[in-house]
Input
Amino acid sequence: MQRRLLFITFLALQAATVFPAAAQEAGIFNSIKGFGAYFSLAEKNGVFHSATAFVDIYGVATSRCSFPGYKFNVSRQYIIREFDKSPVHMRLYAGPGISLGMVHDHDKGRGIDFTSLISDNTGFMLAVSGDIGCRFDFGSRVALDLSFMAEGGFHLREYEKEKSYSAASLSFYNNGILQDIYPQLTILFRL
Amino acid sequence: MKKTATIVLSLLVAFSLQARTPVFTYGLEWGYTATLLKTGQYNFICAEGYRIIENPVTWRYFSNGSILANAGLNFTDHLNVSAYSGLLGVYSRRWMVPVELRVKYCPAGLDKDGFVLSAGGGVTFPTATLRETGARGVAGAGYRFAIFRKMSVDFTLSLNVTLDHDRITDPDTHQYVSRTEIESNTVQYYALNLSIGLNF
Output
């Protein structure tokens, strides 16, 4: 298990260093989920690859925990359709990917809740992702990308009720599904 | 007060006369706020009956966020005035709803790539405990990327100063001091804000 985790982390680090160097576009990822950096490789035969590394703010914005999580995603995007309504060029795409990170998962108690903190809920998450989005190119060096992403995977953390035994708790990564309706706006810059 | 209102109105009329037709603008702005400094001025009578005057200065780093919507007018090709409101974090578990007026000046033009200067101020309404209205001032500079027609993206670094009130605790009884015993109670939060603004 540990070797696999190390291998996955190694792959993620490789991708994190290779992507910015070979990227055709870089951007700023903005969502209610969090904020971070985005890179995409050049399109080839209607397919392009994207990488997103962002700070997951679940629980932080509602004051339920004092520090954020970190997430990384690599996706293979297939261009489904292109629209050209000059001067706006739209590109509809969708594709699968892999997400991994160190994040908080959904916990009961919603909204602004000062009493039940979820700071002890941080854990490792690994999931397969499905992305659908539309890129708006206006002919300038800045483009916009609006997308939605769902993730299905697991969340591994220390079991909150048996911390003294260092017991692990493995559960479905709920936020992967609950946050799929959150829009993701990326401001893209051509490199 | 009347003088200020007259000056503001005259300026608005002057700007609107300069412009061909005022153009309405809308936008969303979100960002990261690093609260660095809190200063306070307290003057109150404690339970023992003597007066306490304190002016604490606390350097402490807090991460906060802000999300604001705005609507305004382009008075000239270089100047925009907008009203902002939304939600912003100012200190540890201290949120406020601001209502403020902000002036943006773009030397290269509002619809072109170039530097942007902004300054403004307004009132703030705390979302919880001690809901006394405060005030806030913002001044910053950044860069605007024109995207398409009126649409643009601003990246701005600004200094935010927010005035607030605090809950004063009696040093002996550890109870909150009654309002009637407080002569002055003001707090200022100083923060740096890095924001992204989408204008359309």
Notes: Residues 2-18 of chain B form the longest helix (17 residues).
